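Researcher: Let's try something more involved. This one mixes different molecule types, so please make sure each is placed in the same coordinate frame as the others.
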Amino acid sequence: MRLLKRSLLAALLALPCLARAADLPVRYTVQEKQLKAAIAGTSLTFELFRDPACTTTAVHSTSVLIENVTFITKIKQFTPKGDTKLPSTDELAVTLSGVSAGGNLYLKVTGTGVVPVGGACQAQAAAVSEVVQRIVSRHGRLDILVNNAAVEERRSILATTLEDVERVMRINFGGMVNCTLAALPIMVRQGFGRIVNVSSAVGRSPVPGEAAYGASKAAMIAFSESISYELEPRGVRVQVLFPGYVATTGMARQARRDGQALPPRWVHRTAEQVSRAVLRALDAGGFEINVAPLETLAPIVRAVAPKIYRRAIVRTQPLP
Ligand SMILES: NC(=O)c1ccc[n+]([C@@H]2O[C@H](COP(=O)([O-])OP(=O)(O)OC[C@H]3O[C@@H](n4cnc5c(N)ncnc54)[C@H](OP(=O)(O)O)[C@@H]3O)[C@@H](O)[C@H]2O)c1
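Model: All components are placed in one shared frame. Result:
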């Protein structure tokens, strides 16, 4: 599960680079959480393309073992191992030798734990299917996928860029789609599978300052409901989890640091309560797993008394 949770990690800035020499030094940024899960012994593939979308045939391709990729800023030589603490942001450098193409080139890096941050050339699907393949070859099957990873960015829409929204959508929605598509072939072949997508009340009753986060969770709900109809007859159950408010998580701690209003007590739940609810619902539950059922009142009140609902939101939710 940790691998799946972490399978969307990592880093790269697709950079246009001018290359006429035989050796092409390449640098790209990496962040702690993004490489932590990359497994020592696996390799990164560097491919160079002439087009910014990286859709043509690669003009150059090199695979480099993670051990051989050098940290150039804070650590001179780095060999990732399990839980090694990495600096929060750093640069990696590698030299691609034998590059003969001239003109602008665009770099794409793929491999376990590699997800591009910005830039044109992005490829993460291969990395996730590799993780699924590894689980299947080790355990013979894959029964449960929980799409949990997410980021929350609370900010005014006036301070939000397209890149901010794309990043949140890519991690929260794109990551879920990516893992789901990778897991489905094996689950359908088995005739059994459980997919739990961790959403949020904000996805069905949005609040100010959470446009991107709310949109990513709403997209997750729609995607999940649509595929659930098709997959249920094949033995694969897709469910959406609404965990309520869990105060002990990183996201909740960050929200408190940001001065975000606390949700009412009656939607507070512990991580244990959420886990138990998920386990109970895996076989018996319906499409929605509502750990704090009173949350479901919000969209109902909005539908029957929209003015009252709106006034309540304005009164209780401070603007960012
Ligand atoms: N806490 C709540 O009250 C609440 C309410 C509603 C919904 N949720 C949902 O519950 C889920 C878990 O959130 P949480 O509250 O437990 O917060 P959390 O502690 O911050 O967990 C978020 C997880 O997502 C991972 N993650 C973030 N960006 C990632 C990326 N690019 N690639 C891979 N993994 C990434 C984080 O990894 P790192 O540990 O490396 O940072 C972390 O493990 C989320 O989907 C959230 O939307 C939470």
